[in-house]
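We modelled the chain as a single entity of 223 amino acids. Its sequence is:
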Amino acid sequence: MRRFLILKLQGPMQAWGDHTYEDYRPSMAFPGRSALLGLLGACLGIRREEPARQQALASSLRFAVRVDGRFSRLTDFHTVLAARKVGGKVNDNPVVSRREYLVPMDLGASFTVAVWEADAAEVSLGQVATAVRRPVFTPFLGRRSCPLARPLYEAELEAADAIAALAEVPPVGGAIYSEEGDAGLPQLRLRDDPVIVRPRQFASRRVYIHNPTPGDRNVPEQG
């Protein structure tokens, strides 16, 4: 049996950054690894200029995310000054930026996240649970314009694995994107694992899809 921390991510809007460059900022369909580490890092009070603490957190935690309900996508438009060009230089002209958000279609639609310790974790699950209950910095759902509708903390429990842990927390049955799974499950290859020593760069990881929803664009074609 392992120990799990269960989080609920619920709010009027959420935005979980996908691959982007200034003028278009899409959202993933569920919170990725980088976003979850940032969320918990804020609760723990880890600052941008503390790479050692960031690395310790990243190497200590693993995640599984369940989608509870349906979301639509909303695009907002902003005018950005001094936007970066692809080569890294600053654009002299204003740029129109499109920013995508996830908006609940079902009452109470949310994401339920199971968090557990990796081997030789430097940051314990207990420390994270305490920080989630009493965060140092205000957590938000991907962007500062996306406040929480309820506290993050849901439960702490023991289970054989993340899927069994999530089965203890209603509602059950939604698609689960987990860092653990059998080779026969549908899989995604995501580039959302932050490379701490090279800011704003990401490594790839494998995500296993449990309870895939027919027609879900996040489920790869089989065959």
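As a brief sanity check on the tokenised model: The beta strands are 2-9, 24-25, 61-68, 71-80, 95-104, 110-117, 153-159, 176-178, 187-194, 202-210. DSSP finds four helices and ten strands in the chain.
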